[in-house]
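Section 3.1 - Work completed
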Amino acid sequence: MSTAACTSDGDGPTAKAKATATADTTCEDGAYSWFNVDERDVLTGVAEKEEIGGKGGRLTHKMTPLHTPRTAVTFEKGSRAGDAKAALRSLAVVIGEANADDDGVSTEFAHVHRSAPDLDNGSTTIDGAGTIVQYAWVKQVTADFRYTCGDGKPVTGRATSWVIDGSGFLECSTPIENVKEGAPALAAARLSCDPDAPAAKT
């Protein structure tokens, strides 16, 4: 992923870095300023529609992966090595996933080697007949940052992780209530239901 340099000089969310110095780091306990914080629900997998008759039954179609969420921090090319975990901890504080006073942030959001959600993590049983589509999604968070510490040159970069992973199912002949353009359920309906299905329309 390419790095987007921060150009804004305005006041943005700032969180103290709680990292210790490493061999490649010349300054510790600096401050991260965050810009362009983007939180959005992203469809990660969807199954083909399947007909469930009678009084219901178990869904058997496996979900096809569409997007693999990842946890990563990209630092400005040519800058000194940064602390990816500290950057993610700082972003977790900004979005309310962690407390600024917690030195050992336990949230999965800050785990650099976090595994992507398993799309095949169990079975789902439906009560009632219908044309059913199963899907999965995450709330992906991406943001640009500037790290300032001491008299050194600020380091810029981009961080990404996710805060929620979930799954659901929809019935193609039933409109999805209060759905917004870009919602995972709507995207799943448009991929797996017939084009004129009520669930595929806003």
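Second construct:
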Amino acid sequence: MSMLLLKLSAQDLLTLDSRDRMVPHLAARWRYFRGADASESERSAWAESLVSLANDLVAAGRGNVEMIVECAATLDEAICPGDPRLIDVVLVGRHPKRHVASVQLVELKRWSTVSRVERATADLLHVPGI
């Protein structure tokens, strides 16, 4: 069985969080798959980053986008020894203009500041310490 901690829409994730059930659910699933408790930093990252991403999706009118949280990067992760390679969030929905299936992999970071390297290059960022 491949690791997958949570799969639900952004709006439903916010509902689960509002009932103070999201982090305990994720922690229980983490323990099931990993055989150890999730660290406090992992729990804190879930509480902040997942909720922030879900809020952004809802604010953009994409509250129905599925969020697949902490899933194995490959199907054979269950048979590979050691720590599995995990994808923080996989977003699954429909492209807003073309109306075809759309999937996006998201690596969540808790950076406090970022800035553009060059004004003319919008896709390059400088992150202090990286």
